[in-house]
């Protein structure tokens, strides 16, 4: 794991976290309801941020794990790491953040997160961190301006004048849903998909480009 073992993960304030995410995350945006912010430090400098918060669609998400209470799950809704951090940093930082949540917020039983293949990737980091794949569907909600490279979601797109601009195209890709059970006694109610399903559906993506799991293993 090399220098990834030297990374220190600790809670930071929202302003520091939000500023870093806006500068580093591919979307350039934060999730407004993030309530728990972890900073990842190496050589005494901030090089990564993870933000957790209540799921935006709690009513539609709570039943994914049997017997879940209203405040017993949380969403990892932003991860932003710069290139200074070494290989395996993301999975190590996720593991540390989960340990801290388990220790300081024992009411949290599981975590949900999403991988957006249209803009980033298919969730390699989540698979390496022990998350289960519970959803894989076509993502038709993202648009990109072929000239300015700006990206926009459906709701925002259709409520602005940009829909009249012919330079906007719908992005191709998939949305993958992952769950991590902190409480191993709990049961996921949806079918847990084998990771091979990603290739079967042609959903493998890395930085917005098609790739298979086998190709990724070779590159690693």
Provide the fold topology.
Blueprint (H helix, E strand, L loop, with lengths): L7 E4 L2 H11 L11 E7 L2 E9 L4 H4 L11 E9 L7 H16 L5 E7 L7 H5 L3 E7 L3 E4 L5 E3 H5 L9 E3 L3 E8 L14 H5 L4 E2 L2 E2 L2 H7 L1
Parallel strand pairs: 4-5
Antiparallel strand pairs: 1-2, 2-3, 3-4, 5-10, 6-10, 7-8, 7-9, 11-12
Description:
The protein has 220 residues and is an alpha+beta fold. Helices cover 24% and strands 30% of the residues. The longest helix is centred in the middle third of the chain and has 16 residues. The two termini are 13 Å apart. The mean pLDDT is 88.
Question: Keyphrases for this structure?
Answer:
220 residues, alpha+beta, Aminopeptidase, 2 domains, seven-stranded mixed β-sheet, three-stranded antiparallel β-sheet, 7 helices, globular
For the CA atoms, what is the radius of gyration?
18 Å
Structural class: alpha+beta
CATH topology of the largest domain: Aminopeptidase
Looking at the overall shape, the CATH architecture of the largest domain is 3-Layer(aba) Sandwich
* Strand order within the widest beta sheet: 1-2-3-4-5-10-6
- Report the portion of residues in β strands: 25-35%
Low-confidence segments, ≥5 residues, pLDDT <50?
A: none
How many helices? Answer: 7
Could you tell me the mean pLDDT? 88
Number of domains: 2
Query: What distance separates the N and C termini?
Result: 13 Å
- How many beta-strand runs? 12
